[in-house]
Structure formats: C-alpha cells, structure tokens
Amino acid sequence: MLTNPGLTRCILNKRQLATHQHPVVLLRPPGRFTRLNLGDLWEYRDLLYFLVWRDIKVRYKQTALGAAWAILQPLLTMIVFSVFFGRLAKVPSDGIPYPVFTYAALLPWQLFAYAMTEAGNSLVGSQNLITKVYFPRLVIPVAAVLGGLVDFGVSFVVLLLLMIGYGITPTIAVLTIPLFIVLAIATALAVGLWLAALNVKYRDVRYTIPFLTQFWLFLTPVAYSSSLVPAKWRAIYGLNPMAGVVEGFRWALLGRKEAPGLMLAVSVIIVAALLTGGLYYFRRTEASFADTI
Amino acid sequence: MSDVAIRLEGLGKAYRISGRNNADPRIRYGSLRDSLAGVFRRSPKLTAAGEAADLFWALKGVSCEVKHGEIIGVIGRNGAGKSTLLKIISRITEPTEGLGEVHGRIGSLLEVGTGFHPELTGRENILLNGTILGMKRAEVLRKFDEIVAFAEIERFLDTPVKRYSSGMYVRLAFAVAVHLEPEILVVDEVLAVGDAEFQRKCLDKLRAIGGDGRTILLVSHNMSAIRAICQRGIVLHRGRIVAEGNVNKVADDYLAGALGTEHSDRAVETGSFAVEDISIRSLDGPVIKTFDPVEIVVEVTARADIQDPALYVAILGADHQRMAGLDSKDFRTFPPLRRGERATMGFHIDQFPFLPGAWHLDIQVGDGAEFVYESVGPPFGFDVVATPVYGGRQIEGLHGQVGLKAHAITAAD
Questions:
Q1: A25–B94 CB contact, under 8 Å
Q2: CB < 8 Å from B in window 185-214 of A
Q3: A3 within some domain
Q4: CA angle centred on A132, ends A126 and A134, rounded to 5°
Q5: pTM of the predicted model, to two decimals?
Q6: Does the ipTM exceed 0.90?
Q7: Is A276 at the interface with chain B, CB within 8 A?
Q8: What domains does chain B contain, in order, with CATH numbers?
Q9: Residues B22-31, mean pLDDT to the nearest whole number
Q10: Order of strands, edge to edge, in the sheet holding B106-109?
C-alpha cells in the first residue's frame, strides 16, 4: 500500500467507504440450527423478478403457436374429459355443464402441476448459476412457481368466455378466487421445495415427478366431483390440498351451494405444514447445493 | 470500523473422494436406493482411518487478512485450491472448518456469462446478467449505456445472443461483469478471454476499480496481469498458503519453483573441453524477465592445453532460429588453459531484450587460435517469465520477439 502512487486518493476513498457501515458476512461451517431468514428473498427481489421474466419470455420462443399453447393445453384436456367422462361415462357434475365444471378445475390443477414440475427441476436446471454465483437459492424455485401464473391468466380468460357461453353468473364468492390461487401456488411451492432440494442429491426425483403428477391428478376432483366421496371421508380427502383448491375454485366461480369448509381447512393446515417443512429442509441443505449438484 | 475487508482463520474445505455424491463429510448419503436400503440393513461403517482417507482437503488451514483497498493476486497451479477459496469467500459454498469474515458487499466473477440466456437479446441479457451478479435493477439501468459502449455491441443490442459471434458474446458478458462495482470484487481466471485489445481494456477497468479504493481478489494464470494489477500476492499449494507478500517477489519465487533452476544438468564433453555446467540467471531475481540484467555462465575443464579459450553463445527462438549471438573474441581474450585446469567463461547482458516465452541457448566452446568451435550438445531451454513488458497488456507474440525500451511521443512534448 505504501508504495502505491495513488495513496492519497486511496485514503480519501477509504474515508468515504468508512462513512457507511459495511455489512459483515460470516463464513463458517454449516451449523446445527437452521434459520429461515426469508428477508434475503426480499433483498434479492430484483433477481426474482428477472428470473420470472426470463422464464416467461423464453417459454414459447421459437414455437409456431406461441402463447396459444397456454390456452390449448387446458382446452384440449377439457374436450377429452368432456367426451369421455362427461358424455360416455356420465360422471355427475353437480348440475353444472360438464365442460365448465372440468375446465374450472383444470385451471388451478394445471397451474399447480406446472409450478410443481418446474420448481422440482429448477435447481438442477440452474446448475451453472448455483456453482458460479451466490444468491439465496430459494429465489430459483420461487421464480419457477410464479412463472406459471401468466399461462394461468391467459387460460382464465377462456374460462370467462365459457361461463358467458353457458350463461353462468358467479356469486359474490368470486372475490375469494385470489385466496385459492395463493393456496394452489403455496401447495406447488411446498411440494416443489422438497422435490427441488431432493433432486440436487437424488436425480431419481426427476423421474418421479411425472408419475407424481399423474397419480395426484386422479386423487384430485378434476374430472369428477368431490361429492362422490362419502361425506364422512371428506375431511380426510382434504389431506390432498389440491382437492380443497379445486373445489374452492368451483365454489367461488360456478356458484355451488355449500363452501367446502372442512375440507379446505384441512388442506390449509396440510399446506402450511408442508411448506414450513420444505422451507426448513431447503435452507438446511442449500449450503451444499453447489458441492452436490 | 476496522479496515479489514476479509479475514480468514484456519479455513478448510474437504470433499469426498469416493463416488458418494455428498460433499459434506459429516453427512453420509448415497443414492436414494442406498438410503432406503440402509433403513433395513446397516451398511458397513467406515473406520475412522478409512473415513479420513476418503476425504480430500481442497483447502486446509488457510488464514489471511485482506485490507480494504488492497488488490491481491492468488497464484497457484491447477488444483491448488484457488477456485475453492474464491467460492468460499463469495459464499457459493461453505467451509468444512474454520471461520471467515467478509466486511462489505461482495461481487464475484467466477465465469464470464453466467446466466446468459441464448434466446434473449443483448439488451435483455444485460438486465438479467446484471441482477444475477448482484446488481439492483436501477443500478443496471444506470450503467446500461456504459456497459453497451464498453462491449462495443450497439448495433446488435436487439439481436438474440445466440446469433452473436463468440467474441461479441464474451465482450458483452465481461462488460456487464466489470461494471459490477461492489466493495469487494472476486475474479477467477476471466482475463483469458477476448482479443489482446479487449484484454487491455479489461485490465485498465480492473485497475480503475482498484484505484477507487475497492478490494480485489484476482486469480489468474496470466502472471503479467497479476503483476500489472496486484500489489500483494498469495501462493496456494495443495490447499495451503505457502507464500504471501509483494506480488513481484511472490510471483518470481513461484515461477522459479515451478520452472526449476536454469541450469543444464548434463555434463557434456567436446574434443577439448568437459563442460561441467551451463547457467543463465537474472541479477534482479530468481527468474528471468525482459530487460533484466542477465548472466550466462559456462564452467569448463580443459581436456588439452588451450591457447586461446573462447565461448560462443547463441540465443535461439522457439523453433530454433538464431535470434542473437555473442562471441567472446569480440570482447576480450581469456587466459590460456592447461590440460585439466578449470575455468569460468560467460557474458553479462545489460538488458535482456527478449519477450516472455520459451528460449534456447546454443553454446559453443573452442580454441580461438585454431578457429575450432565445438557445439555443447543440443540447445538448452530456458524461460523468460510473463511480465507486463508494455504496461500490463498480454502480448502473446503479437509484438514479435524482442522488447524495446521505448515511450510514445507527440509534437507537444
């Protein structure tokens, strides 16, 4: 330092630097206690924003149909379900026209399935970032989950058109829709966090996700109504949080009589527990992601 | 506030050697199947000794202190632990043991173009890459024009980067990275990109960042870059710090150790001489640098009576073309030798003119009275080590073979 010709300038700058407090970061071996420290997610909100933005921008690049895919996927599924379950198998749909009945459930379901899949594969897909740059790793699965919302928004417009076509007017309950969207996102994140962190260590997860999504679809009242499930089992049925979300959606939009109260309560509790556990597991293992991935 | 930027105490990082893919030695993991099977059947436990043998310490007992405003060069061979050290300091991975403190906002640049997305345009990638490297959005926007100008890609700002030439890609990536201006900047071997002109720009930028009183930790195999930018050097060897101090001193010692001494180890016999030793050394340090005072010395024993001992030395380039020659007869006469008598003959070169690279000596000895010179075996190789001959620019043979003591002038001088 003393031989530095720019010594005086250096000292000046040091004084300037000294006027504001440097944040101190401790480097130490992973401890026994894990702190959630969700504050740094807020600290890195710009990064979160740009990762979501990137995913959306890139998703339909170099596809012929572009964003039309966001509509086609639920629409085609709805048509297949309507023909096979609605027309041929005559699955009861609580007095609602079957296409609307199943489309209203497909929307939150596809939001969930997409978000969970993306989140589950997100860390492994971001290997180059994780081994080269520091930021709270939580940003990656959270961004992956939020990226699904745009497709959801687009296909939601189609649902509104369907409702107009079938002459269905929603009740005041429609105002609760955001809550169910949040619940769907939270469920996807809760499961996605576990999957993402496990995926870093065990690539088995990558092959598990498609099966998981498929089984879960059968366990969720998308093609059928939860009223098929005997009343005394409904609370237990709520252990599948997506059951609560899907029935909540139908209730809020299509004006079904009774709210799925008990089932929903069970779902919320389950999601809260899964999400907390997922966050802790994620935080606990994230320090070794760069070494393990 | 103390002026310490980084303090490390006994830092160590261990990796498992065996295939088991968990790096944290305290947690034992295998594949999911192993873990599930382990619930029912105890897998054979490793003994403590086996456990220790399974660990590879990429870093061990690393302690050092870096003050604010210091520019430190980290030197070492591949696998010496340089990158691991930078990864721990920039929080990408955690140490296995020891403690560290980092005072101030840290920015790390371990790879050029991390997070670039090929489908996005240059404009979009600047924003994305900037935030990935830790800038706020407002900060990237503020420096946007500066970054574009630095990368020289104005015309292609709205072209997807997958259509860029590799040179443009690297320039853009580096431009974003050097405009990241944290209090502490950690840079790993990224100066090796781009053409010579762009490298000089990058070096100047790094120097400017350093001049602003910021702290820089630089890993590079490019010794001239390290010497040009850094004040202090740290040498890592097998995960430990083996030397620390003035960057030129440390770099010279490191190179001397890495290159070996510039002695020919063969004893060679010609018709009239037995050559015991040939050496070339700098009087300025343990390695030879351009413009150093250099001595070339040959130790001989006469195998017959020699009237007029003479020495001829040629300096050959990489492909053995003769670059310069010195004949002792042009300078002086050496005293005559009797059979069996030892003598030392040599040359002192005031300023060794050759640029960094690999060079050879062709030595001939003989009796000037009889006009017979005999070659001493095949040419003997030596290195001129990388130094910033022309102010820190990496030359890579672009400027020929010989360094010139020169400066630029203008009519106003």
A1: no
A2: 201-202, 204
A3: no
A4: 90
A5: 0.75
A6: no
A7: no
A8: 4-257 (3.40.50.300), 263-384 (2.70.50.60)
A9: 46
A10: B106-109, B184-188, B215-219, B71-75, B232-237, B240-246
